[in-house]
Design brief:
This is SGNH hydrolase-type esterase domain-containing protein. The protein is of the alpha/beta class. 53% of the residues lie in helices and 7% in strands. The chain has 16 helices and five strands. The protein has a five-stranded parallel β-sheet with strand order 2-1-3-4-5, with helices on both faces. The N and C termini lie far apart (78 Å).
C-alpha cells in the first residue's frame, strides 16, 4: 500500500514539475511570437504582403492581425492563389498584381494573400479565414496546381497552416478520392483538441514561428537536413529568383526545364469525375457564394513561347483541364478570364521561368488584369 501511495505521489509530483516547466517555457515563447507578429503586421501593412521566403510562417500571423485590424471603412479586395500571386520572383511588392490594383484603387484596401506552393486546399483555408473580411475574392488558378492536386497523395501542402487558421479539411472530403492520404489530415477529434485546447498555448500554436526564430527554418529537422547537405556538398548554387530566364546560366535553365517537366506531367489522364482539384474549387465556390461575395477567377499566364519551343507542355491537356475549371466557375455565376490562348500575353524576355514573371513582367500583367476586371469590381 505504501508503495502505491509513493508511486502516486511521484506521478503527481512529476506531472506538476512538467506542467510548471511547460508553463515557464510557454511564457518565454509569448514575447518571441508577439514580436514576430508585430514585425509581420508592420511589414505587410506597408508592402501589402508578408515578408518573402517563409510566407508559410508569416501568413497566419498576418491573418490574425487582419481579422482585428480591418474596420470596414474601405472595401477589401483579397488576392488568393499560389506563388504567382504572392510574387515569389517579384522583388518589389508594388509590382505584384495586388500592388498594381492598390495603386489604382486608393479607395480600396488590396491584400496579397498568395502563398507559395499552396494547393487548392491551403488556399481554401485562407479564403475561409478571410471570407468575413474581404468584399471581393480575386482567385488565380495556376495550371501547375491542377496537376499537383491529382498527382500528389498529400491533399495539403501546409497542414500546420490549416490547423493554425482554426479550420480543417475534413477527412470525409477524401472518401471519394482513394489515392489521397486520408491520415495526412487530422481527425475531427484532433482538430477539436488543437483548436480548443492546444492552440491556446503559444509553445504549440507558434511552434513553426519559434523554430524559424531559433533555426531560421520552419522545423529543426529541415535545418539539420540543410546543414547535412551543405557538409556533403549537395547544395547547388542558383541564379537569383528575380533574374530573367534568358540571362541565366545553362545549368539553371536546365534545372528549370526539368522541374517544369516534372511538375506539369500528369501521372494519369485527367478525369473530371475523379478530380480532387475540381472538387476543392467547387468547395471554394460554394464558400464564396454562401457568403454572397463578389469573385473573379483567372488563369496564371504561361510563357507559351518557351514552353512551345522546348515542347514542355501538351496544350490539348491544358485546354481540356482548364475548360473544366472554367465551366465550374461560370456555372457558379462568376467570371473566368483565360490568359493562355497559345500566345504570350507577356513577352518571353520578362519571364523568370515558364510560369513566373520578373518585376517588369508582373507589373505589365497586373495592368492587363486590372483593365480586364475593373468593370467587374464595380
Amino acid at each position: 500500500m505504501a508503495t502505491l501511495v509513493y508511486l502516486k505521489s511521484k506521478f503527481v509530483l512529476s506531472f506538476l514539475i512538467a506542467a510548471i516547466g511547460i508553463t515557464i517555457i510557454n511564457s518565454l515563447a509569448v514575447p518571441i511570437a508577439s514580436d514576430m507578429k508585430e514585425y509581420v503586421a508592420s511589414y505587410a501593412d506597408k508592402e501589402l504582403r508578408v515578408p518573402p521566403y517563409d510566407s508559410i510562417v508569416y501568413t497566419p500571423l498576418w491573418v490574425e492581425h487582419l481579422q482585428s485590424d480591418l474596420d470596414g471603412q474601405k472595401p477589401v479586395i483579397g488576392f488568393f492563389g499560389s506563388s504567382t500571386v504572392y510574387g515569389t520572383t517579384v522583388m518589389k511588392s508594388a509590382n505584384t498584381s495586388a500592388g498594381v490594383f492598390q495603386s489604382h484603387l486608393k479607395d480600396h484596401r488590396v491584400l496579397n494573400l498568395g502563398l507559395s506552393g499552396a494547393r487548392f486546399t491551403d488556399t481554401y483555408a485562407l479564403v475561409e479565414s478571410m471570407i468575413y473580411d474581404v468584399d471581393v475574392v480575386v482567385f488565380e488558378i495556376n495550371y501547375g496546381m491542377t496537376v499537383v492536386s491529382e498527382n500528389e497523395p498529400e491533399p495539403v501542402a501546409y497542414p500546420t497552416l490549416i490547423g493554425k487558421l482554426g479550420h480543417s479539411i475534413p477527412r470525409e472530403w477524401l472518401k471519394s478520392f482513394p489515392d489521397k492520404n486520408e491520415n495526412s489530415l487530422p481527425s475531427r477529434a484532433h482538430g477539436w483538441v488543437a483548436s480548443n485546447l492546444m492552440n491556446h498555448f503559444t509553445l504549440y500554436r507558434e511552434r513553426d514561428v519559434l523554430s524559424y526564430h531559433f533555426f531560421k527554418t520552419r522545423t529543426p529537422k529541415e535545418k539539420f537536413r540543410r546543414e547535412y547537405d551543405k557538409k556533403k556538398g549537395k547544395l547547388t548554387p542558383y541564379d537569383p529568383m528575380y533574374k530573367p530566364y534568358d540571362k541565366m546560366s545553362t545549368e539553371s535553365k536546365q534545372r528549370i526545364d526539368k522541374g517544369f517537366h516534372t511538375l506539369y506531367h500528369w501521372n494519369k489522364p485527367f478525369s473530371e469525375q475523379d478530380s480532387f482539384g475540381l472538387f476543392m474549387i467547387v468547395k471554394t465556390l460554394e464558400l464564396i457564394r454562401k457568403h454572397n461575395k463578389k469573385a473573379i477567377f483567372y488563369s496564371a499566364p504561361l510563357d507559351y513561347e518557351l514552353i512551345n519551343n522546348r515542347k514542355m507542355l501538351n496544350w490539348n491537356d491544358y485546354e481540356r483541364v482548364m475548360s473544366a475549371y472554367r465551366k465550374r466557375v461560370e456555372e457558379a455565376g462568376y467570371p473566368f478570364i483565360e490568359f493562355n490562348n497559345r500566345k504570350n500575353v507577356i513577352p518571353h524576355r520578362l519571364y523568370r521561368d515558364p510560369t513566373h514573371l520578373t518585376d517588369e513582367g508582373n507589373k505589365q500583367f497586373g495592368e492587363i488584369l486590372f483593365q480586364k476586371t475593373i468593370t467587374l469590381l464595380e
